[in-house]
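Prompt: Have a read of the protein record below and flag anything odd:
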Amino acid sequence: MIRPRPDQPDPVPRPLDHLVEGGADNAPALVLRSGTLTRAQVRRRVALLAGWLRSLDLGDGARVASWAAKGELTCLLPLAAPRAGLVHVPINPLLKRGQAAHILADSGAALLVGTRARLDSLEVGAVPEACRLVEEEQAFGLATFLGVELAPSRAEPDALAALLYTSGSTGRPKGVMLSHANLWLGAVSVAHYLALEPADVVLAVLPLAFDYGQNQLLAAWAAGASAVPLDYLTPRDVVKACARHRVTTLAAVPPLWLQLVEQDWPEDAVAPLLRLTNSGGALGEHLVRTLRASFPQAALFAMYGLTEAFRSTFLDPALVDAHPTSIGRAIPFAEVLVMRDAERLAGPGEEGELVHCGPLVAQGYWRDPQRTAERFRPAPPPSRHGGMAVWSGDRVVRDEEGLLHFVGRSDAMIKSSGNRISPQEIEEAALATGLVREAVALGAPDERLGQTVVLVARGSAANEEALRVALKRDLPGFMQPRAIRWVEAMPLGPNGKVDRAALLRMAADQLA
């Protein structure tokens, strides 16, 4: 079984694009449908793409957005944009035009590179006037025609490299500001504790707009390994890809793991697998046992993280069988505290808030000082790192052995199929239809999805069909309500606010 390396990785960050500067020139780095790019070819393609971006004279720190499926462009832009002194803003290809327009406007994007269909879907006036649109197919053609190869970056560690948009429990998606150091150290940390080697093959099935998804590429390259980006239609596609590419490392979220263990795995897909990694929600003891039985030769890494600090903890695979529900201990470069209150540590067995300190902590939310101040606050007195910390709002318990156990989330975030969903975004979409007078979106427990979306609406049930049609037009699939509950009035709590707990109980009765 793969064991985490006992030594500590190098804590000195470098510019992000240097991740592919080392290693053997002829070693495979990126496996695409069109063929495999070696590390030398990736280095040259990043240099060409960065040279073209610099030639556009967008200005230092300008935001460059991408809105396309996994491919060469979306895989290399995270390195090429920072090399050109720009900030990459990946947009989840599952998002609809309304959400993409919000991200473009909020980030102040100066360039959007995307597929023709996605660019055409944007309404007139939805794109900032200063934002240029370039088709994905044209970008590398223009870069190759220009032929300018930009040298590796000399950026400072705290220079901004990316904005990753994540939904909060209230409000529209917000951009988490990640520096070169955040992303570099995150890649090095994961490559280290997963014990990745140059011979490894990482199947990248998760969206590259998520920190967990993007790290699949960055950690692979940090270790000199190769990455295989895959947009799958069915779980069977994942199984086939594992066999075709002799995948050694597979990352997924719990709903996908549930689907994968139901598949028939041939021996040529199972045998090469050395590591299974999970984040984006707890696996649960039953699924842990099922994964261990289905893939006994593979080390299972249970992990916990949040975009604002990338990754906080992992459980040593040697402890999984004895502690199937634990999220483990802090990863390299992270300091994780369990706080009883603002100043006091929680004792063993005592519930507290998980607070993440250290160099993986992001720089806050883009142009949102109010929400930054709510989540990013000075590290508590017991911290050895000091500085700013992420107060997660998540409740955990540290046991007598020092292992952490997740208790629950203190906010109203809906987590479905690994997606972080803002209830307010669904509520706003429902209200915008004019078919409801009031709307509350909730996350109801679901065995397969983690949570499923339930919409409680004040209005006429006769409008339900029209409401569903409108929501399917305006929201991506993972945000669609499984159930719509119609009420004459919303229940209120003692403080005059909508009693979400009461609504959730009502919704649970309907789903039962």
Notes: Residues 414-511 form a domain with the GMP Synthetase; Chain A, domain 3 fold (CATH 3.30.300.30). The mean pLDDT is 92.
